[in-house]
Amino acid sequence: MINRTRIFISSAYEDALKGPRQTIKRNLEKSGHEVPIFENGDFGTWEKDTLQQCLDVVDSSDVFILLINEKAGNMNPETKLTPTYLEYRAALMKKKHILVFVSSYIKQQFDLLRREFDQLKKAYLRDNPRQPSSPIEPFEKWMNEQSKKDGMMKEILNKADHFIWAFLYDLFENRSWLYTIDFHKTEEECLKISSMLSTSFRSVVGYLSRQREIQQLEKQATYLANYTDFTINLMNVMNENNLITHTKDYDGWCRFLEKGISCFTEKEIIQTPGYNPICVNTISNCFAASLYRRERNLLSLVGTAGEITANEFYSLDEEDVYVVNAYNETARLIFFSEEKQTVYLTERFGEYVLCLHFRLSEKWSTEQVQAYSDEVECAIIDEHEHFYVFLTLLLGGREHE
Q1: Burial class (CB in 10 A: 0-12, 13-18, 19+), 103
Q2: What's the CA gap between 226 and 3, in Å, rounded?
Q3: Crossing angle of helices 162-173/104-127, nearest 10°?
Q4: How far apart are CA 273 and CA 289, in angstroms?
Q5: For the domain 217-396, what is the CATH code?
Q6: pLDDT of residue 18
Q7: How far, CA to CA in Å, does 145 sit from each of 140, 141, 187?
Q8: Where in the chain is CATH 3.40.50.10140?
Q9: Cβ neighbours for 177, distance < 8 A, ≥ 6 positions apart
Q10: The whole model's pTM is what?
Q11: How many percent of the chain have pLDDT more than 90?
């Protein structure tokens, strides 16, 4: 069928939601949409990694419907995440059209907990350098304690699995609108959902079915065009200034660095990208750089980019100097100035040491940068991998000149 939308229905596999899932599926399919659900065998033959299979179906869907009642489903004891939550995070990261339907009773109870959760989350972030890897981490200890005490909080918390309250708070923080539903009035309520979805899709269904393909092609085309411009411009600067033989042409190296750092654009710093991606901060475009070359027992400045003041030389015996440490350790190192809120990525290439300067959008402490050093490096390097490799090849290839 032309302009058919693929809709994924996500929920814990609990008895109260079996009927609603089937009713929503049936009514949406009557309207011409494709609605695979795992209990009907719509995903084909089950593989060993059933969670990954569900995530793949989320990725290939246009719309993500989330149903939340009392049960959270199986929570992994190591990651403290549930399959339903991972499906939601996958849909969020892929920028799917997300619609969340919550039991009206559970939503009422959550509203009574929300202010307490606000304070608990603030306290957690104050005491921990990293964001929680699971939505339940900031609240788990408090909920367990309250569940052992008599009182209103115990009564509320025990009305659903504890993960449900944390899940709802995560949805609230992500500004997902929570539609309420009475799952006991299955047919009547689900007909409303189906009718609402069909009406809202009617004007955009053609685009939704092609959206992912269009976005992917556009992203690839932009990346290739930018990479082509970058490599041509960098080679032109190197050739025009004859930097292969004129190693001490300060102005030439400055022009080289100005072109070289232009590829490093603003990127998000993502925690746990493999299973629960969370944006914890944003790193700026590269606003400055310095390049040093070894001459006997010194590292001498050969060029800079941006408005920085760099020392003309350093002794290789000096301690606590970024570029000296990077040269002597022959490693890529991340340094941080808390006062300037600046991250320095420094690496040796042959006889050269390159130091790149980046700022953070949100203020961090040295402890936080150390806790997220791998994620910071990933945001800088992995997101610009081909550009960075080409830049450093031009530098590293000069060590045998």
Answers
A1: buried
A2: 33
A3: 80
A4: 28
A5: 3.30.450
A6: 87
A7: 9, 6, 39
A8: 7-203
A9: 100
A10: 0.74
A11: 51
Low-confidence stretches of the chain (pLDDT beneath 70): 1-3, 38-51, 53-54, 186, 190, 192, 194-213, 215, 244-247, 397-401
Q: Where are the alpha helices (DSSP H) in 42-149?
A: 50-59, 83-93, 104-127, 140-146
pLDDT tens, position by position, 256-288: 999 999 999 999 999 988 777 889 999 999 999
The model's pLDDT over 232-256, given as tens digits with 9 standing for 90+, comes to 888 888 888 777 666 678 888 999 9
Give the length of the chain.
401
Q: Count CB neighbours of 254 within 10 A.
A: 20
**Is there a contact between 336 and 329 (Cβ–Cβ < 8 Å)?**
no
Could you say which of 3.30.470.20, 3.30.230.10, 3.40.50.10140, 3.40.630.30 is the CATH number of the domain covering 7-203? 3.40.50.10140
Alpha-carbon distance of 140 to 373, in angstroms, equals: 27
Structure confidence at residue 115 (pLDDT): 93
User: Measured between alpha carbons, how far is 384 from 389 in angstroms, rounded to an integer?
Assistant: 9
Dist. CA 277–CA 289, nearest whole Å: 30
Structure tokens at 238: 């190197």
